[in-house]
Amino acid sequence: MNEMITKRNDLLAQKIIKGLESRNMQGFYAKSKAEALSIALGLIPAGSSVTMGGSVSAREIGLVDALKVGDYKFIDRDLSDDKRAAALAAYDVDFFLSSCNAMTEDGVLVNIDGNANRVSAIAFGPRKVLFIVGMNKVCKDVDSAMKRARNIAAPVNAQRFGLSTPCSKTGSCMDCKSPDTICCQFLVTRYSRHDDRIYVILVNDNLGF
Predict the structure, then answer these.
(1) Helix, strand, coil % (nearest 5) of the chain?
(2) 0.85 cut: is pTM over it?
(3) Distance (Å, rounded) from C-alpha 39 to C-alpha 199?
(4) Secondary structure (3-state) at 149
(5) Is 48 within 8 Å of 126 (Cβ atoms)?
(6) Cα-flanking dihedrals φ and ψ of residue 173, to 5°?
(7) What phi, psi does 74 have (nearest 5°)?
(8) What's the DSSP call for residue 195?
(9) Which of 27-36, 70-79, 139-148 has the lowest average pLDDT?
(10) Alpha-carbon distance 26 to 24, whole Å?
(11) Confidence of residue 34 (pLDDT cuts 50, 70, 90)
(12) pLDDT at 54 over 90
């Protein structure tokens, strides 16, 4: 990461962490993927049940691989014969891993979803939710975060999953009602009513989409 960008990220991360604290969420800042992995594993006690909503960012820092080989009860939806049962199991785990499609400088998290398993688990169910968020996903406000989610994250994910949506062909949101649309549910997390439930690890790197 460029030295000047790192300096900017170091300063901005502190602002975001204060914003998260004001929203009853805990924020952490990692200067590298390795540091992010260390922080994440420090938050998840041995023996915890853990699953995820398909987070690329959690994979990129090595967290998923570490959980699979460590002393954890990792529910791997990708390897499950019953995907619905694996998705429903997420509502009763100790830790649910996710990233966000975008977040604001004052700590609001923005996510969009097709099947709603990810956003519903973020909103309710798992005892704790751990977000891994690259600084590339930070936006000025909710409006710009929503635009990022719809015009950057959604088209890339539609292409990644081989979906036939207008955005997968044009590269930007067409506000479609395609049968393949992944912009079915929108979740804006502005406050956590439950203490010590939502953790956000900001990473000085470009992670996810």
Answers:
(1) 45, 20, 35
(2) yes
(3) 11
(4) helix
(5) no
(6) -65, 135
(7) -90, 120
(8) T
(9) 70-79
(10) 7
(11) very high
(12) no
Domains of the chain: 3-104+113-137+189-203 (3.40.50)
Task: Tell me how far apart the alpha carbons of residues 149 and 185 are, in angstroms, rounded to a whole number.
Answer: 12
In the numeric block, the tokens 């996903």 are attached to 137
Q: How far apart are CA 138 and CA 158, in angstroms?
A: 21
For all residues of the chain together, what is the average pLDDT?
A: 97
Q: Which residues contact 112 (CB under 8 A, 6 or more apart)?
A: 101, 119, 149, 150, 153, 154, 182, 183, 184, 185, 186, 187
Q: Which two tokens stand for residue 28?
A: 């952490």
Mean pLDDT, rounded, for 18-38: 98
How far apart CA 153 and CA 101 sit, in angstroms, is 6
- Whether residue 1 has pLDDT greater than 80: no
With H, G, I as helix, E, B as strand and everything else as coil, classify residue 45: coil
List, for residues 69-109, the tens digit of each pLDDT value. 999 999 998 888 898 999 999 999 999 999 999 999 999 99
* Residue pair 167/155 in contact by the 8 Å Cβ criterion: yes
Question: Residues near 166 by Cβ (< 8 Å), separated by ≥ 6?
Answer: 174, 176, 178
Token pair in block for residue 10: 């170091």
Burial classification of residue 97, based on how many CB atoms lie within 10 Å of its CB (0-12 exposed, 13-18 middle, 19 or more buried): buried
